[in-house]
Amino acid sequence: MNPHGVIVRDLIRLDKPLCPPHFLCMSQVPAREPPDFLDGIVEDILLSYRELGGINHIEGANLPSRQSVERIVEELASLIFPGFRTEERLELSGMRYAIGEKVVNVARGLTIEVEKSLRYTCRMMDDCDRHQNCTGEAEDIVRELLEGIPEIRRRVSRDVQAAFRGDPAARTYEEVILSYPAVEAILVHRIAHELYERHVAMIPRMMSEYVHGQTGIDIHPGATIGDSFFIDHGTGVVIGETTVIGDNVKLYQGVTLGALSVRKELANSKRHPTIEDEVTIYAGATILGGKTVVGRGSIIGGNVWLTDSVPANSRIYHNPSQIRHARADDPDAWDGGL
């Protein structure tokens, strides 16, 4: 019995009012007809769907769910660093169950989203020969990713160690894991890159853009990044799709590793620079071009604009008094693309 004297079983009887005494139900309020102009608004919106697209596939397989992918990212991150992402308390005796539950949740959810991606590729890219069994292929991709979690953990742990070594302000590894945006961005990149390498459409980019919104660090999932990678501060860093970064590289905020051109016909070529091992690039530096190589052990100073390769152990600094001019017809000239 509730405070108004209404028995719960009475609430489900259709012949009984669904409101307590002395209360006015919405069902008892006379319904108002919607204004006539709303019909025209609905028709205009539907017409825009037909003309402009931008609507999920109503009569076919849906696109990957953004909400689901973001939830899966958080679940995967909690597998990399259990106990750091939520308030859950982990006990050694229940560890197998807790981790097992997360693995099952990720396997189920991500398989559904990857299958959607494969079906999209089949339908939109006319690539059905490669995806004859979308469900089975999705299961294989997710299984391979989950089997790789221990190695991803080892690599992210080395990234955390690089952050701790590279920042005098860092007090503990735990502080780095809990508070450094670069660790979060690199962690998600290492997961997204595995899916990118397996030709999964959309989901890797959805993962990278999710963490981009969280951290201000934009790493394309196609970028190849070596071990012990550290981005100090991080805000405004952009790392393009075909960038190759070696081991023990350190970037500061506002660094761009971009392309000289945004011409669409170059989409399948190497457009972004190669950064070899032991390189440090300071804040605001911009390094562009697929043929640009920064040699091992080099230091690139703040605000440098670099479109040419530099040999190992170079020291490149910004000099505002010197401006390099390039002809408009120079094929290596920057055309405004990042």
**First-to-last CA distance:** 67 Å
Largest sheet, described in full?
Answer: 5 strands, parallel
Spans where pLDDT lies below 50 across 5 or more residues? 1-18
Please identify the top-level CATH class of the largest domain. Mainly Alpha
How many domains? 3
The CATH superfamily of the largest domain appears as serine acetyltransferase, domain 1
Shape: globular
Q: How large a portion of the residues is in β-strands, by DSSP E?
A: 5-15%
Q: Give the strand line-up of the largest sheet.
A: 1-4-7-10-13
Radius of gyration: 26 Å
Mean pLDDT: 85
Relative helix content: 25-40%
| Total beta strand runs | 14
Count of DSSP H/I helices: 9
Could you name the CATH topology of the largest domain?
serine acetyltransferase, domain 1
Order of helices and strands: HHHHHHHHHEEEEEEEEEEEEEE
Q: Provide the CATH architecture of the largest domain.
A: Orthogonal Bundle
Q: Which structural class best describes the helix and strand composition? A: alpha/beta
